[in-house]
Amino acid sequence: MCCLGKRIGVLMFFVSLVVLLNVALLEGSTYMKLDELKQCELEQISAKDFTLSFLNEGLRHEAKYYGRPMEIRGKVRFTRRREHILGYSDMRVVVLSGYMNTKESLAGTHLEFLFSNDRLAEFADVQERDQIVIRGIYIGEYSDPNDMYDVLAFINPVIVSHKKTDPEVAKMIKQAEAEYFNKNYARAKELSKKALDIDPENADALSALGACEDYFKNYDLALKYFDEACRFDPDEPINFYNQGRVYITIGKKDKAKEVIEYMEREFPFDQYTERLKEAYKNNWVN
Q: Of 4, 34, 59, 99, which one's alpha carbon is 20 to 30 angstroms from that of 192?
């Protein structure tokens, strides 16, 4: 009798899920025209928080958002082409960073906004690291074994606002990161500073410069730059990881613990949360 009750409960849950999905479709969101999508009032949610909702809620998330218009803000990870995705073919895609998570088997979960070929001009100048606010109709999760990440997909995208990264700044940051990983720390620091001279609020440049100052044991400066990176890009977990790592290095484990607690709330499945917890546990320093 107990097992029968459980089966009935599971069946009722899936019936409810189907009903919710049908309601979403019947309300017309899936067929909303672009002009209507541009004009309707929507609550904005970050790409990070939308992904976190999916990771936490699973099917309940899909039931709540499937077929609904959404307004998402986030950082452009890259653009790409997809031959096939959820019944759509030959789409051009803007990918927003979601989560590099440890809970799922794939390396991460990110958001993809699908543009048809006749709309290429609308995002021709969108590039990696740009900050963007974009609307679209959520059509669910997608996994491709050839990808290193899971997808939360949207159709009928409309770009609401676009803060473009200066191409020269983007180039300098890429060069700085390459120099850092090649252990040319002085050159990496020089390039990061030049990027910040052009764009003082660029979180990626602040993070790169913080890493350089950390290497040179200028910990006060490192914390200053990591603090600013967290302020200008609060959805990027590596900034908080770096901040907490420096606190461990200088012996301020109480401050590091505060960062860990924040990351456990805001980035519970992210690899950097786990890495900082491990560093704290082992009292790891540079």
A: 99
Q: For domain 167-281, is the CATH number 1.25.40.10?
A: yes
CB 215 within 8 A of CB 242: no
Instruction: Kindly report whether the global pTM for this prediction surpasses the value 0.85.
Output: no
Beta bridge partners, 152, equal 111, 141
Task: Tell me the CATH number for domain 15-163.
Answer: 2.40.50.140
| Residues 47 and 111 sit within 8 Å (Cβ to Cβ) | yes
Residues of the chain with CATH 2.40.50.140: 15-163
Rounded distance, CA 78 to CA 41, Å?
Answer: 28
The whole-angstrom separation of Cα 193 and Cα 266 is: 29
The neighbouring-strand residues paired with 19 are none
Helix (H, G, I), strand (E, B) or coil at 138: strand
**Chain region(s) in the chain for CATH 1.25.40.10:** 167-281
Residue 153 has phi, psi (to 5 degrees) of -105, 150
pLDDT in tens, 81-92: 999 999 899 999
Angle between helices 237-249 and 253-266 (to 10 degrees): 160
